[in-house]
């Protein structure tokens, strides 16, 4: 089981930027694909961005393409997400997640490990 801890969430004005970090501990052998999800009050948890082990495959939700980027540092067992041009609609609790393989990357049920979440609030 992989343990994930997110950090970096804070209050930011619309148009600003944030970088979220996810630190992985425990076994990392099954961390073929790591991703960020988010969940706003009253909404379902949704996929935001993900990256495979070597960085060759990345996936982004349509709502964040061109604004968010995701990268991974395997030496540090860390995954990062840079968020630019933030909008009030981006306000949510953001979760780091890990899964085996790269298929079904947008499905929360496909992930075997989850962090506790970090809050991002974008003010207008």
Verbal overview:
The chain is mostly beta strands. Helices cover 0% and strands 51% of the residues. The strands form two sheets. Strands 2, 4, 5, 6, 9, 10 and 11 form a seven-stranded mixed beta sheet that branches. Strands 1-3-8-7 form a four-stranded antiparallel beta sheet, with no helix packed on it. The radius of gyration is 13 Å and the shape is globular. The model has no long low-confidence stretch (mean pLDDT 93).
**Number of H- or I-type helical stretches:** 0
Biggest β-sheet: count, sense, barrel? 7 strands, mixed
| Average pLDDT metric | 93
- Cα Rg: 13 Å
Helix content: under 10%
Proportion of residues in β-strands: over 45%
Task: Show unreliable segments.
Answer: none
Task: Detail the topology: elements first, then pairings.
Layout: E1 2-7, E2 11-13, E3 18-26, E4 33-39, E5 46-52, E6 58-60, E7 68-73, E8 78-83, E9 92-99, E10 113-114, E11 118-123
Parallel strand pairs: 2-11
Antiparallel strand pairs: 1-3, 3-8, 4-5, 4-9, 5-6, 7-8, 9-10, 9-11
């Amino acid at each position: 089981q992989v343990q994930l801890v997110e950090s970096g969430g804070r209050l930011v004005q619309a148009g600003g930027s944030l970088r979220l970090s996810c630190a992985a501990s425990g076994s990392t052998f099954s961390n073929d694909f790591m991703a960020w999800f988010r969940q706003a009050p009253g909404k379902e948890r949704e996929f935001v961005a993900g990256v495979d082990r070597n960085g060759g495959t990345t996936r982004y939700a349509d709502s964040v393409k061109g604004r968010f980027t995701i990268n991974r540092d395997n030496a540090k067992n860390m995954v990062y997400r840079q968020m630019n041009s933030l909008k009030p609609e981006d306000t949510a609790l953001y979760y780091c997640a890990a899964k085996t393989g790269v298929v079904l990357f947008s499905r929360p049920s496909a992930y075997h490990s989850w962090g506790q979440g970090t809050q991002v609030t974008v003010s207008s």
